[in-house]
## 1
Amino acid sequence: MSVLHVVFKVDGAEYALPAADVLQMESYTGATPVPGAPSHVAGLVQVRGRVIPVVDARARFGLPAIQRSLDSRVVVGQLGQRTVGLLVDSAREVLKLDPAQVKPPPPLVMEGARGFVKAVAQVGPRLVMLIDFPRVIGEETPDGDGQR
Amino acid sequence: MTGSVDLADFLPAYLAEAEELLGAAHRHLLAVEASVRRGLAHPRAVRELFRALHTIKGLSAMVDVEPIVSIAHWMETSLRLADRAGGRLPEASVEPLMEGLREIEGRVRQLAAGKQAAPVPAGLLERLEALETAASGTGPTKPASAALDLDAALSSRLSTAEREQLTAGAASGKRAVRLDFVPSAERAASGITINSVRERVAKLAETVKVLPLSGPAAGGSSLTFALLLLTDAGDDALLEAAGGPPGSVRSLASAPAAPAPARAPSEPELEAVASRVDDEPEEQRRGGGTLRVEVSRLDEAMERLAALVVNRSRLTRAVAALTAAGAPTRELTAILQENGRQLRDMRAAIIRLRMVKVADVLERLPLLVRGLRRSTGKQVRLELEVGDAELDKAVADRLLPALVHLVRNAVDHALESPEERLAAGKPEEGVVRLITHGAASGLLELCVIDDGRGVDARAVAARAGVPIPTTQDALLEVLCRPGFSTRDAADATSGRGMGMDIVRRITVDQLGGELRLETKPGAGTTFRLRVPLTITLLDALVFECAGLRYAVAVGSVEELIDVDPAKLVRPAGASGVVLVERRGSAVPVLSLERLLGREGPDGRNGAGVKALIVRQRGEPVAFAVDRLLGQQEIVLRTLEDPLVRVPGVAGATDLGDGQPTLVLDLAALGAARSGNSRRRESVPGRERAT
């Protein structure tokens, strides 16, 4: 049973999220910063009348900030009761991934990626990393991950 | 499970109704208990309680909740006995009835949570049944020795209690008599009226009831007053009190007689109550055309209105742009103004829809105090002085847990034991008062006042391991530390997370209100809460700071001042806090830029042109802003996600540009981030303060 995934890019690397967890994609026109929020939170955006927080994937992955372009996207994901956006460099593809294509990441990656990558899928010559969405977004509590 | 679909449809209505009836039942049972305690009958409360239980039973049978039907049935049975006894209840009956109500309530909760109602707890029905036998065994004051000799017309107008009073009086040796007074114009002219007769009779006899009887009377009159009396006085004295003939005196008791007549007539009475409930349920309980609406529907209406308000802001800006471009917009502007008025009226109407009476919200508190009275062994009286103040349902729902905490604390911690109170020269019974005042600008003030021992600042400080607080605000600060408790051993009550931190979190963080403390050692403590009447729609000041727009609730801002940078005073060593003079006192000016973490590279030190003055723990504090953009109505969207739930940010709003604008709670922002950096941790995850 292959599963539909949304593929997005951060700093040249490709990541994927099950399409079932994704509500929609929005282009990014800036977020309202929230004082005192964790540093990886870009701020608030309004999506169809709802106000949701946006996590900056670059900041979260420890990558340098770049100038946002027309390609920048907010991947709006559903996490239980929460709706949270993930700001990525671009997102323009959906892929069907067969479980057979998906393997656990090499131990070295596991350690280096702070658990953000939970599997790697081989798609032809490309390597697409499946992210652990709850982990990337942050813990249930604002203080849980010691970021503040 | 053929009924399950229907049940699901009917359940919300059932739950709402059951909830309401339980509230009423609790109220009446407490009234009954209060009477029992003083050895009095309370026939009306017994009857109302019966009525509520009867309806609960009927509704529960409809949705097929057998356990509730059984409990309600047995409670009814014991109440029927009490009613026959003239609304008198043996003291021992109150507790099983309370227990029964609690069990019914528990089962209603289970149904509300989508569970099955648990079976009837072991022994409860037996205890309720035992009441019946106990009551009929010992019996009410037995009127066996005397029966009343009343004609039917009179008899039907007497209540069971009145009838009992007469027979009991007769049994104890008094004379039960009927004294007829016939009023007339001549008698009135000489000062003999029913009122003067009443007064004179009162000196001779105990008046049980005065019944006006119309119809031909002695002396050609068409009205007679029948006074039913218990007396030791002779007929002549009584007759004279009634102005003499054509009045008359008749004895009512014809002893000895069969015991039956006194009780039999009361039998149909409760049945009549019951059938009345069935016949006219709607008018009875929804009198005045009241409608019950699910809160979610009100929320929906509010959402729609919110969209309209946002749209109006956009329209306003579009028109402003047109005007600036030189277009003829006079009529548009007029329409826009009218539209604004209509939206304001609409908003007021919707807010009114969402308002609930504070008194209704607090109806559980007497029950809470009753439970505490039992568990602590303290004597407590709860006085509610809430008038007809109203609150938004959303605010009320959040506020109730805070008030429960405060009342519980007052009984549990603040009030002394009866012995201690007597030793301190106070009345044995402690008093907890809850008072509300409507304050200006959409705020409600609630005070929880006790006459207990007061907060011992020294003990609090010792317990928290901090220096003794010198002001009441500082003391409150220590009390509100997470997990702080003044009790040494966690007992049944204080073990349930008694923290004042919860009270503060609800009042200050969730509702954007204010919490104050006044305490006097030995004399008692007052907690003063100020909360907004509604938190969804509010008037806000919009301003700009460090290139971004923000909003604050108008109600929270005490004053707007101009700041002349040349007149700012910088005290040495105050780490950048500057002072401004306002009407003879120095007010600290905080840099909002810095508080928001948006300090510009030029380091202007927050000396904005304008400043908003806000009370932070009672002290005025000025927040410098760059530019005021005006006042407008906003729809507050609370931020639920833990990533962005931070102190100082009350929520977000849309000013019409599609970009969220932060709504700040300046007092909380200053408190959370200023010099004394007390980190107020946010509520973890989905935890709800209870």
Note: Residues 69 and 89 of chain A are 8 Å apart (CA to CA).
## 2
Amino acid sequence: MSSKETLCQKFKEKAELVSAFVTEIDSEDAALKYVIELCDKKEACQLLASGCEADLSDDAGALCDAKQTKVIAAPGLNKEIYKKLAAKAKKSGFDCIDSGMRDHLAGIDIGFTYAEYGIADTGTLMLDCPGEEMRLATMISEYHVCVLPKSKIRANTYAVEKMMLTRMKKTPDYLAFITGASRTADIERVLALGVHGPLELHILLLEDN
Amino acid sequence: MQKANDLKEYREELRESLDNDFLRTTLDNFAVAYRAGRANAFKGMDVRGLIDDIAASKDEAGRNSEALFQEFKENAEAAGVHVHFAKDGDEANAIITRIAKDAGCRKIVKSKSMTAEETLLNHDLEDAGLEVTETDLGEWIIQLRHEGPSHMVMPAIHLSRFQVGDLFTKVTGSKQDAEIEKLVKVARRELRQKYVEADMGISGANFAVAETGGIGLVTNEGNARLVTTLPRVHVALMGIDKLVPKLHDALRILKALPRNATGQQITSYVTWITGANECLAAEDGKKEIHFVVLDNGRSELLKDPLFSQVNRCVRCGACANVCPVYRLVGGHKMGHIYIGAIGLILTYFFHGKDKAKNLVQNCINCEACKDVCAGGIDLPRLIKEIHARIQDEDGHPLPSFLLAKVLKNRKLFHTLLRAAKWGQKPMAEKDGFIRHLPMIFSKEHSFRALPTIAETPFRDWWKENRPEVKKPKYRVALFSGCVQDFVYPEQMQAAVDVFAANGVAMEFPMDQSCCGLPVQMMGETKASRDVAAQNLRAFEPNAYDYIITLCASCAAHLKHNYPKLVMDKPALKLKADAFAAKVMDYSTFVNDVLKVEKDAFRETGEKATYHAPCHLCRGLDVHDAPRRLIEKGGMAYVECAEEEVCCGFGGTFSMKFPELSAELLNKKLNNVEETGAQTLLTDCPGCIMQLRGGLKARGSKVKVKHVAEILSANRK
Ligand code: SF4
Ligand code: SF4
């Protein structure tokens, strides 16, 4: 195996250990297709998974009612890809947005992003998101789908240190390591996913040699 | 939080915890699962090396904290962040309240910050009319219950799903089941609403990186990202201990922190915030960010030659995870705000002597915390030191004062022991136990039988029976410790037998006395120094190849503490170094130096299990030797569950907290009996006293012996 393949394997293995869904894809079109299909498969009442079925207080309940159609948020994509995605979403009856996340704080169905780097030894995605829309898309979405070009996988955090510093020195900066879905073990140490952030993390490993 | 006024009240509180079955079971399960999880997370890594590197880098950061703060401040301000310095908790709270008022904030969402717990920030904010919501699930739960955290990383570990279900029923006004998945979803929705309304977010920081002026936040839930993104104002409160020079230092700590905290390789989110980021809820589109850097006694601590190492703490909570006492009583009784081993120490410095004085006595000195600490802090030593300081300030309790007096005078001590032999006659039974506990012991001590003083102490036997070894391979001095000298001389005799048979010439310096650990444990530093000096004078280290002791606690104390105890006397210090270098425990000497072989012993094939004394496995890092000896000595070794967990003796600890000692012993003996072995072996007379006494009280048939005894018995 080439060293790139080894890193890739390691990344996949580690990400899956923390319950991320990892899929290898060979084109960006495949990524768009993945997103649309995933959105389609999601429950009709989009927020079911995240607690709207529960008996809530009146205020929190009202927030649940605020949402009508399925929404894909994809801020920070390049124009062309975004256009393609938006067209596909429209055909399937979903809203596609790249801004205005604050109007959707009840939750969006899918946040679609690209990672800057992947860190193999922990299966971590590194996303730089100084822009608020991008940050929110990765947090308030129920599913976060993230494309990671294989050429961007590095062995460990020390290998991305220089890159991190370059970004941090160009302030302001808001940089995130994301590893698996949002989780908690605060009640009786039982692991539960999706306490504040995404319930699922889907990583699309893009072949880009 | 710790409320007890005196030791008596504190013991009553402890009893409540002991009676809480849910808490006990949760903490037990957690302790066992944690050990496996941590080992797995660190698999294949050089953990010691990593911890040493973290310690070195944090020590360096501590020495330069003022310069680091300046650099951090400059870089942060250049990036549009306001930086404040608070000398104590009140000042920090006042600064944050003013920020909220000035920015016209009303509702605050908070993500977990131990530092804010330390300053009791929520009280002050609420007094100022602000609404504060904790968003970390565990923190939210305890906030709703008006409690303090019971664990640094899992603040609500003391609560059951049913308690949380009832609580959420109250909060939402509709009935909630006790299903964890569902409860988590309810929290998700309820808290999402809070983020929407909040105009200020408060977080802590795990790292304050001087070279970038930014902070790093380590979370699993993702709430820190929402707290630092949605509201238009963000305040991060952090202690100066969070300052590190370079991003690299932070990344290094990040390798250890989650692994040590929960056995995760990394948390779900690590968020790096540098500069005033975009915020679409703010008028100018920029977030108003404040970093509040708190001193609260930390810079004083940094100046203290011994306590400056506290700065290395990364708040992983591991010291609580492995602490056998925490495991019995939980965080509310094992700390004030900060809990576990580090909690005992920080309570003294941040919350004062009165809050700490009972807590610091509740450490059994098993060293499990020191062994696991991500910063390599010598926690048990610091705890003992605080205990001593408090006694120096408050006056010494009578028993500890008396013991100190007696131990300082070897002749008096030994005369008293000899007299005790006569005093106990009416109560002694033939089997070597005391029939009725003497009056000074209350009922709580009946969980174990106590041994009688031996007919002839080892020192008297030695005078008559000292073997002559011709053409010796090694010359050693024996250090017996008081228990083996006066209670279990047969253990020493067994060692003498095997040594003589293997060409070891021996000396037993008559002026030796108790090693001094008991008085050190009671916070009697002065007496402990005097005793060390006495023993050092009794030995001539250059005349022997090794100084051998069969007591793990003595060995660890002689080796690690003597040089420190006489540090201020240069001539004695030199001797102490030479002395310490020669000290060795029995098993290591026989297995690694004498290299005894299996064929020198009769093979009985009897099943034997082992208890690893704290001061042997952790204190001296000896693991293999005794287990190898058990097999070489002709027994069939069966491993016991939690073999390296404390038996609850802890010297004077078992006198002060008999209920806790009994519980620790109980667990140990259950594990022992489960192995089905008829013999239990160990390497420390203190442990033997505890284990034997406990088994006797249970009416068990299992025999307890020192490893030396079976080697002597089975020698061909
Ligand atoms: S030495 Fe043992 S009992 Fe004391 S705090 Fe550390 S782990 Fe707990
Ligand atoms: S003292 Fe050590 S083990 Fe305890 S929380 Fe701090 S770093 Fe972790």
Note: Chain A touches chain B through 65 residues (CB under 8 Å).
